[in-house]
From TrEMBL:
Residues 3-30 form a coiled coil. It comes from Nothobranchius rachovii (bluefin notho). Keywords: Coiled coil. The gene is CACNA2D1. InterPro entries: VWA_N. Residues 35-117 form the VWA N-terminal domain. This is Calcium channel, voltage-dependent, alpha 2/delta subunit 1.
């Protein structure tokens, strides 16, 4: 049995946590700066072609071929994920947009356009 020095253990843990948080903070600042640049460079468009912006509409019935012929809709490839214990798609991310109100609106499509970067 080996004695532990509690003060040293706590100090080391605190240093490790501080270093981890410093790295995460720097990464977050870098992402925020890049997002601001992409947003400033984005040119607003009043109209989009159907196939110009692709997005996933969660109201689409994925069991039916409802997305056939709709090239602007992303059809996720959901697979069972043992970590999350549910169907997931690791190739796409999503944001909640009330599509019953905003489906295809210029505001939403412009936001999707610049955030796609």
């Amino acid at each position: 049995v080996e004695q532990n020095d509690a003060d040293k253990l706590v100090a080391r843990a605190a240093r490790n946590i501080e270093q981890l948080l410093r790295k995460r903070s720097a990464a977050l600042e870098k992402l925020a700066t890049a997002a601001e640049v992409f947003q400033m460079e984005h040119v607003w468009k009043d109209e989009f072609e159907d196939a110009e912006i692709a997005y996933y509409n969660s109201k689409d019935n994925l069991d039916a071929n409802e997305t056939e012929g709709r090239k602007y809709r992303i059809r996720p490839d959901f697979k069972e994920d043992p970590s999350f214990k549910r169907l997931t798609d690791h190739n796409h991310t999503a944001v909640h947009i009330p599509t019953d109100i905003y489906d295809g609106s210029a505001i939403v499509l412009n936001e999707l356009n610049w955030t796609e970067a």
